[in-house]
Amino acid sequence: MSEYPYHIRRLGPDDVALMRRLNAMFGAAFGEPETYNVNPPDDAWLRRALAKADIIVLAALDGDEPVGGLVAYELDKFEQPRREIYLYDLAVAAAHRRRRVATRLIDALCEIARTYGAWTIFVQADIGDDAAIALYQGLGVREDAIHFDIAIPPLRALREEG
Questions:
Q1: Mean pLDDT of the chain
Q2: In what order do the strands lie in the sheet with 65-76?
Q3: 79's torsion region: left (phi>0), alpha (psi -120 to 50) or beta?
Q4: DSSP state of 104
């Protein structure tokens, strides 16, 4: 059996250029290049975010090129002294799919989550994203939920209403 061709690496504050390439890969993989590329954060923003211990960014690299990646957030809980990890973004470039890249990324996230004392990783999948749903069902227990985005009005609008 040949050696796995990809290297999984956690990004840190010195990986701003790599994070930009990972965001471009996310935009292409999700079919949302405008979301990931039109109004990118500056280097200082990315450096600060990548330095936070509660933000986990992993890249699957082919050489130095990101072919997959994930972004997750550690959440401290209040009902018990424990943590959960929210897997927010997970994508693999089209040319590298069906090679266990996503599974290896999630395995690496599990190892980090264990060191954080997390008891679970949770993730959402869009209805109709059959590949993501199949991946997650193979790794965990499905819970059906409804997701809402609540817009935050500008401060001025809140003052005028109040």
A1: 88
A2: 7-10, 55-62, 65-76, 83-92, 118-123
A3: alpha
A4: H
Instruction: Give the single-character DSSP code of 96.
Output: G
Amino acid letter, residue 131: A
Tokens linked to 86: 């929210």
Cβ contact 60:104 at 8 Å:
yes
Q: How far apart are CA 144 and CA 124, in angstroms?
A: 9
Question: What values do phi and psi take at 72, rounded to 5?
Answer: -135, 160
Domains of the chain (ranges plus CATH)? 7-161 (3.40.630.30)
Q: What is the pTM of this model?
A: 0.84
Structure tokens at 45: 């923003």
Residue 9 near residue 19, CB atoms below 8 Å: no
pLDDT digits (tens, 9 = 90+) for 12-66: 999 999 999 999 999 999 999 999 988 999 999 999 999 999 999 999 999 999 9
8 pLDDT tier (thresholds 50, 70, 90): very high
